[in-house]
UniProtKB/TrEMBL annotation:
InterPro entries with a match to the protein in the record: RNaseH-like_sf
Source organism, top-level taxon: Bacteria
Protein name: Transposase
The species this protein was found in: Clostridium puniceum
SUPFAM superfamilies assigned to the protein according to its UniProt record, in alphabetical order: Ribonuclease H-like
Length: 143
C-alpha cells in the first residue's frame, strides 16, 4: 500500500495520517464524506483514529494524488483477488461472486419532463446508476 502511495505521489513524507488510516477513514466513514463539513470530518478522524488535523490539512489530503492512489490500490486489489479466484475456481463453493455499487444524482430542472418522478423530495428529476460485476467471470477476462 505504501509503495502505491509513494508511486502516485500521495505520500511524499511522513504525514500525521498514514495510508492505511486514510484508506480506513474513507471506507468506513464514506457515508459522511459528501455531506459533512471538514471540521466534522476532522472530529471523526480524531475520535476514531486519534489523529488531529485542521480542516485545511484534511482538505489538502483530498487531491488528485489521493484519487490516483485509491484507484490504483483498488485496481491492484481486484487483480490480486482475481488471481486467487482463478487459481481456486474449481474448489469454490459459490458459482458467482457479485460486486454491486450504486449512486444517484439530482438533475437540473430542464430534465424534469424526461426524467420525472425519480428525484424524490430534493429534486423533480434524478438519474440513478447501478453497476454489478461478477468477479468469477471477471477473473477469467483479466490477466
Amino acid at each position: 500500500m505504501d509503495r502505491i502511495a509513494r508511486k502516485t505521489g500521495f505520500i511524499k513524507r511522513n504525514d500525521k495520517i498514514d495510508t492505511s488510516t486514510f484508506l480506513a477513514f474513507n471506507i468506513f466513514l464514506s457515508h459522511d464524506m459528501c455531506d459533512k463539513s471538514l471540521a466534522t470530518l476532522c472530529g471523526k478522524l480524531a475520535a476514531n483514529y486519534g489523529i488531529l488535523l485542521s480542516p485545511q490539512a484534511l482538505n489538502e489530503k483530498f487531491n488528485k494524488e489521493a484519487v490516483e492512489f485509491m484507484q490504483k490500490l483498488f485496481t491492484e486489489m481486484i487483480f490480486n483477488q482475481n488471481k486467487i479466484l482463478k487459481k481456486h475456481r474449481n474448489s469454490l463453493t459459490f458459482k458467482r461472486i457479485l460486486l454491486n455499487d450504486a449512486t444517484g444524482y439530482s438533475l437540473p430542472n430542464k430534465f424534469n419532463d424526461e426524467y420525472s418522478e425519480s428525484g424524490g423530495s430534493s429534486s423533480k428529476s434524478a438519474i440513478k446508476i447501478q453497476l454489478q460485476y461478477d468477479l468469477q467471470d471477471l477473473c477469467t477476462s483479466i490477466q
